[in-house]
Amino acid sequence: MEQPSASPLSIDSIIDRLCSLDDMRHVCPSRRHEGAPLLSNASVRRIVALASGIMFPGFFNDNVESASVMRSTLTLACHELRGLLIHQITAGLSFADSDCAVPMHEIEATAVRDAETFISRLPSLRRVLDTDIDATYLGDPAATSTHEVITCYPGLNATISHRIAHELVNLGVPVLPRMISEQAHSDTGIDIHPAATIGSRFVIDHGTGVVIGATAIIGDNVKIYQGVTLGARSFVTDDSNNPVKGIPRHPIIGNNVVIYSNTTILGRVTVGDGAVIGGNLWVTRDVAPGEKLIQARGENFRSVEQTNS
Predict the structure, then answer these.
(1) What is the pLDDT of residues 264-284, one digit of tens each?
(2) Is the pLDDT of residue 83 over 90?
(3) Collapsed DSSP state (helix, strand, coil) of residue 162
(4) Do the beta carbons of residue 104 and residue 182 sit within 8 Å?
(5) What is the mean pLDDT of residues 186-194?
């Protein structure tokens, strides 16, 4: 039986509908039409690669074959990084300024200042990352060298991305830090909000499924294993029942703390210095310094609740 012919596709009518502002709930800010640059995932990924390669030559780029060419290679990389940062910070600031309240020349000047400040902080950022690398190597009997840690360990990869993103957060750069963290999340399975504050000698062992919330504060020499969540217990809501943003709602982890796999710590609770929290626990109360929380014998899962809950 002969099938009826389909009506010809009217591309023009479809485009008319797609371009109708009356039918468009989510539209790029109007500044996009003034020639502002666009945010680019590819450019953001390149920014992370360049910053990582500048801090650790030879590990994240394949063109540093000898010490004699290192200076020229890093110089070129810094210039490329500066240009990409200015372009993408400008895009991010424009994206955040949807009402066009700030003149474009001021946005561009801010982007230049932030890009150059970020680059100036790379030496100190590397010193902190060196402590993460050393702690990861010393804490893992399977690690054969710090070079292997840098090359292979997803926990360190996520930490590098986080520290880069967190520097941009500290500079007040919008959007880009979250793009960096979500790219690392996609690559490693480790989800660290760029606003989270993390001390030195930080180790994520194995790492898959780790979640660290935006207002979490982590001290020095902390080690966490796969599946750990530092999350929020509940949200304060406004009159429209929407979450109130900016309220501290994630855990504070002290120095020299170990948190084993698949443990969830929720709310603005404090885990004291030197505490050890075993695996598969649900913690919603403060943990005293030096305290050790483990599953009770014969229990498959233990909930450690607040005494007033």
Answers:
(1) 999 999 999 999 999 999 999
(2) yes
(3) helix
(4) no
(5) 98
Token pair belonging to 146: 């710090």
pTM for the whole structure: 0.88
Return the axis-axis angle of helices 154-170 and 122-138, rounded to nearest 10°.
150
Neighbours of 190 (CB within 10 A): 26
Exposure string for 71-102, b = 16+ CB within 10 A, e = fewer: eebbeebeeebbebbbbbbbbbbbbebeeeee
pLDDT digits (tens, 9 = 90+) for 124-150: 999 999 999 999 999 999 999 999 999
Q: Which two tokens stand for residue 103?
A: 């003149």
Per the CB < 8 A criterion, the answer to whether 280 and 295 are in contact is yes
Q: Is 255 helix (H, G, I), strand (E, B) or coil?
A: coil
Residue 208 makes CB contacts below 8 A (sequence gap 6+) with 154, 188, 189, 190, 226, 227
Chain centroid, CA 141 distance in Å: 27
3-state SS, residue 23: helix
Q: Which residue type is seen at 158?
A: A
Half-sphere exposure of 272 (CA within 13 A, CB side): 9
